[in-house]
Specification:
alpha+beta, 9-stranded antiparallel sheet, 7 helices, 27% helix, 36% strand, globular
Length: 357
C-alpha cells in the first residue's frame, strides 16, 4: 500500500514504540521506501533458501539467520525523490565517544600487525579486521537519522531493522551480496578504500588492486559450478559517502533455481568482509578480533520476493541501544598493510556514520 511521505514516517514513528519486529528499507538508486511489519513478536529462523521473506544474517555463518516471512507481515511503502522530500534538522545529536580512541588505536594496530605476521607466514592471503566504536548521545532520534541516511546515500541500501529479541540496527551499505531475477545472477567484488576528494579519477596502489583481485578471483571460483555464461567487468571506481572503492561486476545465469542457497553459502562471508582463504581468515577473526561482530558484515534483504532475491552485505552500519550507538568499521589486511594506515582507514569509515548522527 502506497502512502504519502508524512503519513509513512508517522507510521514508522509509531512502530518505534510498538515493540513489533519491522524493517524499513530502500534499495540503491531507487525512490521506493518499503516497510515490513511482522504481525507478532516470534523470532523466525531461516530454514531453507526457498523460503520467502526479509532475511537478516550474522557474520558467523554457523549462527542462525532471522527471517520476517512475507506471509506473516503487513507492508506499506512510499516514494521519495532524492535530496528534496525529506526535511531533517541540523546538529541532531550531542554525541561523545564512549571509549578512548587512543586505547582503541593501540589495540587495533596491535591486531593488524598480528594479522600481517600471520599473512607473511604463508597462512593467509588477506584478513579483514574490524572494530566497534561506541558513541553516547543524550538525544539520538532514529527516525531523523533514517531520513538523513535516505537523503545522503542514494546509491546505498539504506535500512532500519528491529526485533525485540535482538535490537535495532541501521545502516547504508554500498555492497551487494547478490541479486537473482528469473535465474539471472548478479554480484560484485568490492575492495580498496580511499577518501573522496571531488573526483572519481584516482590512482590505486598495488595493495588495493591486489586486494580487489583476490575478491574477484574468489567469487569466480566459488560460483562457477552453479552459474553459466559468466561475465566479468573491468574494475572501476565508485563513490560511497565520502569514500571511494574499487568494484568489479559479475553476472551469469543460475543453472538451477535450487542452487540459490549454495551460492549464498559459498559467497558469505565474502573476502571483502572476511578474507582468504575464507575459513582460515574467519577462524583468525573469531579468535583475535576481541568482540562479537553479531550482524555487522552479515547480509540482509529480500529473499524470493516475486521470484527475485536482493541481498546486501551489512556494512556502514550501527546498532542502537538506548543512548548508545555502536559503529562497526573494518578494512582488509594484506602483507603490504601498514598498521597506522589501516587505523586511519577505519577512522575515515567511521566518519560516514557519524555524519548522520
Amino acid at each position: 500500500m502506497k502512502k504519502e511521505i508524512a503519513h509513512f514516517f508517522k507510521e514508522i514513528e509509531v512502530l518505534l514504540t510498538s515493540n513489533l519486529p519491522f524493517v524499513v528499507y530502500r534499495k540503491p538508486n531507487e525512490k521506493k521506501v518499503s516497510c515490513l511489519v511482522q504481525k507478532d513478536k516470534t523470532l523466525n529462523i531461516l530454514k531453507e533458501f526457498n523460503d520467502s521473506g526479509f532475511v537478516f544474517a550474522p557474520f558467523d555463518d554457523s549462527k542462525n539467520t532471522v527471517i520476517f516471512p512475507f506471509k506473516k507481515c503487513k507492508s506499506f511503502e512510499t516514494e521519495i525523490s532524492f535530496k528534496s522530500d525529506l526535511e531533517t534538522p541540523q546538529n541532531l545529536a550531542n554525541v561523545k565517544v564512549k571509549t578512548s580512541l587512543e586505547k582503541a588505536q593501540l589495540e587495533h594496530k596491535k591486531i593488524v600487525q598480528k594479522a600481517i605476521n600471520f599473512i607473511i607466514s604463508g597462512s593467509s592471503n588477506k584478513i579483514v579486521l574490524s572494530r566497534k566504536e561506541e558513541l553516547i548521545s543524550s538525544n539520538l532520534d532514529v527516525l531523523v537519522t533514517l531520513k538523513k541516511m535516505l537523503n545522503t546515500y542514494n546509491n546505498a541500501f539504506v535500512y532500519v531493522w528491529f526485533h525485540p529479541q535482538i535490537g535495532l540496527w541501521m545502516g547504508a551499505t554500498p555492497e551487494r551480496l547478490l541479486s537473482v531475477s528469473k535465474n539471472v545472477f548478479t554480484t560484485m567484488a568490492l575492495a580498496g578504500t580511499q577518501s573522496y576528494k571531488n573526483s572519481l579519477r584516482v590512482n590505486w596502489e598495488s595493495k588495493e588492486r591486489d586486494e580487489q583481485q583476490f575478491v574477484t578471483n574468489y567469487i569466480l571460483s566459488s560460483i562457477q559450478k552453479c552459474v553459466d555464461n559468466l561475465s566479468v567487468s573491468n574494475p572501476y571506481t565508485i563513490k560511497a559517502g565520502n569514500l571511494l572503492h574499487l568494484r568489479t561486476d559479475i553476472t551469469g545465469k543460475l543453472k538451477e533455481t535450487s542452487l540459490l542457497g549454495d551460492i549464498v553459502k559459498s559467497l558469505h562471508p565474502t573476502p571483502a568482509v572476511c578474507g582468504l582463504p575464507k575459513e582460515v581468515a574467519k577462524e583468525f577473526i573469531l579468535k583475535n578480533e576481541g568482540y562479537d561482530r553479531a550482524y555487522y558484515s552479515g547480509f540482509l534483504g529480500e529473499l524470493n520476493l516475486y521470484n527475485s532475491t536482493n541481498l546486501f552485505v551489512n556494512l556502514r552500519c550501527m546498532q542502537i541501544e538506548n543512548s548508545v550507538a555502536s559503529l562497526y568499521i573494518g578494512g582488509g589486511i594484506t602483507a603490504e598493510s601498514i598498521p597506522q594506515n589501516e587505523w586511519l582507514e577505519t577512522v575515515s569509515k567511521a566518519e560516514i556514520m557519524k555524519k548522520v548522527l
